[in-house]
Amino acid sequence: MAIRKIVHIDEEKCNGCGLCVPACAEGAIQIIDGKAKLVADNLCDGLGACLGDCPQGAITIIEREAEEFDEEAVKVHLEKEKRGDEPRQQNHHGHHHHGGGCPGSQMRILNHKPAKAAAAVVGDGDVEIKIKSQLQQWPVQLMLVPPAAPYFEDADLLVTADCVPFAYPNYHLDLLKGKKVVVGCPKLDDIEFYVKKLTQIIKMNNIKSITVAFMEVPCCTGIVRAVEKALADAGKNIPLHRVRIGIEGEANRF
């Protein structure tokens, strides 16, 4: 036990909306009896990634005596949630979700069967080519993905700045195919949180390679620096490929 920074939830302000639950990468917050609660001190890193998701201002960071943050305990906790071993909590509307929060962030592994796979039709005139989605998992937002998600094991990881899929017309077939993906904006989001989340993903899984795709604008190189720092902090030697996308759609690999 030591005095350290940790999340504090004011239950009088909390309305049980659950927005903080998917924002907590460690699964330390759950909705219990209609209120957000910190389920265990050792699951909270004290960085406060959940603060900005609370519309009621019910979450703050305080300093108090608490167990040290334990990455191994986080991994075990998240694996239990994935298997459904953790109890199902109920939000204030009476809807049930594993761990509470938004069902849109519930983890899914996507197997695109021919009959169900979404396809885009490209081309002009009499020539059309159907391109099937290459997305293999959900969610994709770096703020939401569980670090110990099973799809990260033995994966080729694609880290994408969120403007890249709009600018690069061959994104699915050239970059996304065969990879697991996380997406974020290095200008608008918390880059330190990105570094920590990526470090956890790299530490907790056997990542075979990392490709980082980013736009040519200067602010977008922040996502490259986040990946490089995460690799250094994780202490792993993993092949890193960089792909810079121009605003007009050209790709430059280095």
From TrEMBL:
Q: Which domain of life is it from?
A: Bacteria
Q: Where is the composition biased (Basic residues)?
A: 90-99
Region of interest called Disordered, as start-end residue ranges on this chain:
79-105
- Matches recorded under PROSITE patterns: 4FE4S_FER_2 (PS51379)
Pfam families per record: Fer4_6 (PF12837)
Listed Basic and acidic residues bias regions: 79-89
Q: 4Fe-4S ferredoxin-type domain location, by residue?
A: 5-34, 35-64
This chain's protein is named: 4Fe-4S ferredoxin-type domain-containing protein
Native species: Thermotalea metallivorans
